Amino acid sequence: MFHHLRPLRRFCLEQTRPHWFHYSRALSGAEAVNALRPFYFAVHPDFFGQHPREREVNENSLKRLSVYLENLQKPGLKSLKPTQLTFYVRETDQTSADGQESFSQSAGFRAVRFTLHTRDLLSTVLCILNSCSLSVEHIQSLNTNVHSQPLREARRTPDRPIKWDKSYYSFTGFRDPDEDLEQVSRKETTLTSWLDNNGKIAFKKLKNSLPLRKELDHLKDELSNLLQLSDIRWQRSWGIAHRCSQLHSLGRLAQQNLETLQKAKGCTLIFTDRSGVSAVGHVMLGTMDVHHHWTKLFERLPSYFDLQRKLTLLEDRISGLLGGIQVVYVEELQPALTLEEYYRLLDVFCGRLLKSRASCHPQSLRGLQMILNSDRYAPSLHELGHFDIPTLCDPADLQWFMLTRAQQARENVKRREQLKVIEDKLIQASTKKLSLEKLYKEPSVSSRQMAACCERLAARSLPALGGMRLCVSHFYSVLQDGDLCIPWNWKDGEAVK
């Protein structure tokens, strides 16, 4: 897809280090995010509304970058696989010194491709900023142990970070981040004040999206019936127009290869960042892949089904060795793994259990659940009631840990089930009280947080929410198709005029 781009011929770790690099302390996760603010501002998908292909490229690349940064912060991780990323960067006054990036002057952005092969956050941040010709001057202020020399020796550093003229925001309708920052500093945002300022905008977007929403429902039902699918989902929060486009693409492929695609009968199909079969058996269609790759995946589904049966037997074997505990994969709490990756994880764990020849009393842990995690070193009991078990932990220590905490786990499970019932009732009550079209939450919002939010919503009179779609999240936002996002712990109060 990106054959027109000339790859950057640089090795990020070695050629992006400024002179103060060896004297600097490591960046924390929060500092890394702060240091990358100019980069996020230059590639944010919301600024590519008129360029859907470039917007989707940036969305996918940001997702992969987020995973890379998260993995860098995991303890005990020795190295990461090289990750190649492509971004469309909004144009600034600076241009490439070596001519290695691909430019699109008329559109106001340029395409940049680079490979991350770094071992710490600071090297990663420098690689990203230098590859995109963005300033690294602000990074030195984050390192109190470095020399105070200027950073102009850093390779290909612009004179200033991106800063758009006020007229840009007036013309495009985008929010000026400087203005937003000033408003936040002047007063704390309350739910009422935020709805007063954004309710009409959201209503207009929601109204404009209604025809596309109907088309999306029609396409989804049509393809689900044609291919006899259990469900069609999206891993990312793509807009309605993008989702329709993806379903149209699948529909065209179904017209050409109906028999092949019907091999997915009974499956759940997910549009995501890469093609394959997920750890729970869902068929994943990578949105960056062409029809040929999708066809090959559908052709290989019978072999994936065989592997899934072997995986189920492996889970049952582990369960038998560990007192009847159920081995589960929780998508919201575990890394996104393919079926092959998850099978290898289970196989390694099962092998260690068999070698230790240790086993629990039959059915002593029946009714409880455990998840496997390759990134942990010590077992733990989650507040939701399941055990979080490292793949390489000592089997004897593991059994003692689970047996001594089994009663606590059962109590956690009971509280979770009770809280889920309360949450569902409060969602229904809030939806009815506020006349919402839909009330839902992001996966990162717990049942306890959702219940607390809904209880407060149901006690308020908020006519601005009538007929709207409300998502409980960790921040305020109006999504591109009119959904309103509010933080679960929103502040109370009247609008500040």
For the structure shown, list the relevant keywords.
16 helices, globular, single chain
Describe the 3D structure.
The chain is of the alpha/beta class and 497 residues long. Helices cover 45% and strands 12% of the residues. It is built from 16 helices and 15 strands. The chain has helices at residues 12-15, 29-35, 37-43, 52-72, 121-131, 166-172, 177-186, 191-227, 240-256, 258-261, 291-299, 301-321, 339-356, 395-404, 406-433, 447-458, and strands at 83-90, 102-104, 109-116, 231-234, 268-272, 276-277, 283-286, 326-327, 369-373, 380-381, 387-390, 438-441, 469-473, 477-478, 484-487. The longest helix is centred in the middle third of the chain and has 37 residues, at 191-227. The chain is globular, with a radius of gyration of 25 Å. It starts with 11 loop residues before the first helix and ends in a 10-residue tail after the last strand. Mean pLDDT is 80; it is low at 1-25, 93-107 and 144-160.
Short description:
The protein has 497 residues and is of the alpha/beta class. The chain is 45% helix and 12% strand.
